[in-house]
Amino acid sequence: MRLGQRISQLFSSGTTDGTLADLEDALIEGDVGTRLSSEIVDQLRNEPGIRSSSESAILELLKHKLEPFAVAYDLRFDSGDLNVVLVLGVNGVGKTTTIARLAKFYMPEFGPDRLLLCAGDTFRAAAAEQLEIHAQRLGVRIVMQPQGADAGSVVFDAIESSQAKDQALVLVDTAGRMHNKADLMSELAKIDRIIRSHTQESHYHKMLVVDATTGQNGLRQAEVFHNAIGVDSLCIAKFDSSGKAGTALAIKRDLGIPVSFVGTGETYESLEAFDAGAYLEALLG
Ligand code: GDP
Q1: Predicted confidence (pLDDT) at residue 269 exceeds the cutoff of 80
Q2: CATH code for the domain of 128
Q3: How far apart are CA 57 and CA 180, in angstroms?
Q4: Is residue 120 in contact with ligand 1, taking CB distance under 6 Å?
């Protein structure tokens, strides 16, 4: 059941301290995060007239309280210069698919010749080949090395090669093996240093992909990546497969990270710029 439906049901027979406590549980189960859920419900408890409000009035009030945590990041580039997007996330969240969709999304602005994919996941078997298939289908160039190569050197090659060929947007895939977190984070820190030394800060964007269906794990993953190298925006993948997906709100509350994109399917076209109003409507509507 979608979160909004569950909340309507809760309040259909009036508002009591019990239903407000159940609301907190429903928000937590909807991945809004324990801290934010408890803060919001505390605020609602103190709202004048809350106990005589209708269910639709309560949903509206809730939406209003959540609005400051549904924040869009409008990812734009200076197409006259080199721009790099480092795409982060644990295995399986939808990182590779998101890179392909980002290439498709920015294709009208850059054209295929000025886009470059970089296969920075040199750890997972077939990760580079998977990205290569996308590159071929999309008609864009890819820089890759054999599995096991140094990821930093692939990224360095991609940046050098993009400069030589006047390519303006480099989309970098990265490894997502969380079972060896320390190694992964030091590899990412190295990649980050390489990109920073070749790109203007304002032209370098770090995007974390989180899977809308994996619940509270999204917040934990965001904490790990944000503490390691800093995350500029989120892409919420598999939004179409989740009735909850409140993770974005919890991540904004705890880490301050806004959302650039939402993944809404498995095709190249299924990536939408984040629309805060539509997101809250989908969550609570
Ligand atoms: P990676 O390991 O993070 O690179 O994950 P992949 O990009 O390979 O995606 C893992 C699976 O999730 C694939 O089967 C994708 O087709 C699927 N997937 C990715 N994004 C979405 C999305 O927005 N919606 C749906 N329904 N599936 C998605």
Answers
A1: yes
A2: 3.40.50.300
A3: 48
A4: no
* Ligand 1 nearest-atom number relative to CA 271: 23
Tokens encoding 96: 């590779």
- The residue whose CA has the least distance to atom 9 of ligand 1 is 94
Three-state secondary structure string covering 103-124: HHHHHHHHCHHHEEEECCCCCC
Domain for residue 196, yes or no? yes
User: What pLDDT, on a 0 to 100 scale, did the predictor assign at position 243?
Assistant: 63
**213-243 pLDDT, tens digit each:** 887 889 999 999 999 999 999 999 999 887 6
Measured from the CB, is residue 89 less than 6 Å from ligand 1? yes
Q: What is the pLDDT averaged over residues 173-195? A: 91
The answer to whether 271 and 104 have CB atoms below 8 angstroms apart is yes
Residue 144: per-residue pLDDT: 97
- Distance (angstroms) between ligand 1 centre and the Cα of 101 equals 11
CA 132 to chain centre: 22
Evaluate whether residue 279 is within a structural domain.
Answer: no
- What domain count does the chain have? 2
Is there a single domain that holds both residue 32 and residue 167? no
Whether residue 106 is found in the same domain as residue 213: yes
pLDDT band at 264 (very low <50, low <70, confident <90, very high): very high
> How far apart are the C-alpha atoms of 273 and 285, rounded to whole Å?
19
Residue where a domain stops, chosen among 42, 69, 96: 69
Q: Whose CA is nearest to atom 12 of ligand 1?
A: 94
Residue-number span of the structural domain to which 18 is assigned: 3-69
In a domain, 283, yes or no: no
